[in-house]
Structure formats: structure tokens, C-alpha cells
């Protein structure tokens, strides 16, 4: 089981109180509280996850006091497309614009020797690794990751999951339709047709998760009780069940 985060000072949270936000014919609706820990907002493409990320980041405004942040002094949003983050002509300068040391970031992003390259000469997967590492190393109070696993191979996805799990304070919200490689989380949410639904805390929420990965659905159908949402959690639960 995951242990609660150790928190210094008042806890941070984001409350959604009868949120209603329309963009053309599409409307986002939802209520609930994002508390300290890791949250997965899961749902199909086009369900409104990216719009919700922009609302939580304060880049879109619902026109009412339906999104309230408490104790949040820093917010970082990772956009789905890494090209949107590029502001400098070289990789090293791009890393420096985040206030980080290029050597450490490039080593962690497996981009050693690419400091003088134009960021747009990186592949999309390489650029995604770079922006992800920069985002995760900033350690904001509220971290919003919109489709962080897109354009990454399985090895890079697993590395990103480990870094997400290493966050020991603040709120992390992952908006993703990923169904293969996922980090451990404390809470699950679903989005469909613009409607956000809180499924509750993990592991109790797992049987209610309609978009659960196939490996979790199989484990649950066999009577296993995974402690979290990773493939290894499903395997361990099946091992316990089968003795």
C-alpha cells in the first residue's frame, strides 16, 4: 500500500464546485477535490481532459468561483505537444530557461551530447523526454501532466512513471488515456463526454474504473485485489490469489 505524503505546512488542494465551462458546443462539468498525492484522470480521446487541465492551471476561466486553489503557490502544466514549450534556439538554453542545469537534465533525458542542437532537430520522443524531465524537476505545488506518455517508448514511459512516483509533496494530476504503462496513484477520476467523475481512492476505486487496463480487468475478474494500477500490482495480486 502507498503511504500518505509527508507534508510540511498546510496541505494544498484544489476544489471543483459544480464546475461548468463551455467551449462552443462542448461543456465540461464536474465536482470534487484534488488533494495531495497522485491523481489519474482517465478517459477516451476527446473527452475533455486537456480542457480540464487548462482550467485547473488557471489558463481557462469558468467565469465563477468553481475552481478554488488552497495553499497552491506554484503551478506547472505540461502540454501534450512538447513543441509548444520550446522558447530557445539550443537544447542547453532551453533547459536553462526552466532554471535548471543542462548537464543533469540532459543526462536524465538520455540526451547527453545534444546541448548545442536546435530543440526542433530532436525527434518528438526526445523532445517529449526533455520537457517531461524539466517539468518534473521543477517540483511545483500543483503539477498537471497532459498525456505525458504520448510519443514515448515503453522504457521512457517506465522512467517517467518512476519520476512521478518520486514526488513526495504537492498534487500531481495525470490526464491520460494510456492503458499499458502507468504509475501508482492515490485517486482515480474518469472523464467522458466532458463530465468528470471521481471514482475515489485506490485500491477501493479499481472495481468502478470502466477504462481500466486489460491486465487490471483480468486480475479483478479472477478475484484478485491489486493494491494499485501498475502491471506489477496486478501480477502480485494474482500471485497472492493463486497461492
Number of helices: 7
Strand order of the largest sheet: 5-6-7-3-8-9
Alpha-beta content class: alpha/beta
Bin the helical content: 25-40%
Q: Regions with pLDDT < 50 over 5+ consecutive residues? A: 1-7
Characterize the biggest β-sheet: 6 strands, mixed
Q: List SSEs in N-to-C order.
A: EEEHEEHHHEHEEEHH
The N- to C-terminal Cα distance equals 19 Å
Number of strands: 9
Overall mean pLDDT: 93
Specify the overall morphology.
globular
Radius of gyration: 18 Å
> Hey, roughly how much beta strand do the residues contain?
15-25%
Distinctive features:
7 helices, 29% helix, 243 residues, six-stranded mixed beta sheet, globular, three-stranded antiparallel beta sheet, single chain, alpha/beta
Write a structural description:
The chain has 243 residues and is an alpha/beta fold. The chain contains 7 helices and 9 strands, in the order βββαββαααβαβββαα. Strand 6 (142-146), helix 5 and strand 7 form a beta-alpha-beta unit. Helix 2 (91-97) packs across helix 3, helix 4 (124-138) packs parallel to helix 5 (154-166) and helix 6 (214-221) packs parallel to helix 7 (231-242). The longest helix has 15 residues, at 124-138. The radius of gyration is 18 Å and the shape is globular. Residues 1-7 have low confidence and may be disordered.
Amino acid at each position: 500500500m502507498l503511504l500518505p505524503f509527508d507534508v510540511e505546512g498546510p496541505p494544498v488542494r484544489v476544489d471543483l464546485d459544480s464546475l461548468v465551462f463551455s467551449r462552443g458546443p462542448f461543456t465540461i462539468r464536474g465536482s470534487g477535490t484534488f488533494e495531495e498525492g497522485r491523481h489519474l484522470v482517465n478517459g477516451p480521446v476527446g473527452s475533455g481532459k486537456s480542457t480540464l487541465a487548462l482550467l485547473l492551471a488557471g489558463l481557462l476561466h469558468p467565469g465563477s468561483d468553481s475552481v478554488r486553489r488552497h495553499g497552491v503557490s506554484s503551478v506547472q502544466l505540461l502540454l501534450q505537444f512538447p513543441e509548444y514549450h520550446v522558447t530557445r534556439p539550443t537544447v542547453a538554453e532551453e533547459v536553462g530557461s526552466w532554471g535548471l542545469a543542462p548537464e543533469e537534465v540532459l543526462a536524465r533525458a538520455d540526451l547527453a551530447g545534444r546541448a548545442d542542437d536546435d530543440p526542433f532537430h530532436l525527434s518528438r520522443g526526445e523532445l517529449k523526454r526533455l520537457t517531461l524531465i524539466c517539468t518534473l524537476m521543477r517540483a511545483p505545488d500543483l503539477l498537471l501532466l497532459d498525456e505525458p506518455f504520448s510519443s514515448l517508448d515503453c522504457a521512457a514511459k517506465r522512467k517517467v512513471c518512476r519520476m512521478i512516483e518520486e514526488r513526495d509533496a504537492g498534487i500531481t494530476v495525470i490526464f491520460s488515456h494510456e492503458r499499458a504503462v502507468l504509475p501508482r496513484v492515490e485517486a482515480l477520476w474518469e472523464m467522458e463526454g466532458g463530465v468528470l467523475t471521481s471514482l475515489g481512492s485506490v485500491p477501493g476505486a479499481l472495481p468502478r474504473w470502466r477504462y481500466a487496463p486489460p491486465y487490471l480487468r483480468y486480475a479483478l475478474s479472477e478475484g484478485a485485489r491489486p493494491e494499485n494500477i501498475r502491471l506489477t500490482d496486478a501480477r502480485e495480486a494474482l500471485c497472492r490469489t493463486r497461492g
